[in-house]
Design goal:
single chain; 63% helix; mainly alpha
Length: 171
Amino acid sequence: EKLKPPEPDSWKGTPDLLHIPHRVGLSYLVWLSHLGQTEIEELASRLDFAASLREALLSLSSLYPDLPDLVSARRSEVVARLDGLPLLAICAASVSAGDRVCLILEDYLARWRHIKPKTTGDQLNARGLPPGPAYKIILNSLRTAWLDGELKTEEEEMELLEKLIKQVQTS
């Protein structure tokens, strides 16, 4: 049997691209990551790539120019940039990134993407706040505070929640 280098723990649970096994998808992403958007579109069309591989390649291509900026970014800024990207594309970026960027990507994959506020939309509704865009503003603000270390306890979250609700209601 061939030797398989271990994948970092933070990669565990990373979903395959649709119809493409994990290792095959990762190999394509790393191999073709140097291509630009136009080249990816042309190659994907010519070789009839699965849509999921095409999208992951395009995501990775758009992420590469931003990688150096992640080093000086707050956690919430890193999460905002990476959320919504295919996780396998982030894994591929970490393979070729420098040490500092690699650590940031690994932290995102292992921990930061899982950080959510304790407050839910149901709780906001129970407090009399009508469903709408305010929910997203409040929940995103709470998540940002948790990510950036401004909140450490649920009590602190409740205090910030009260302030955010008052701000939303007065605006």
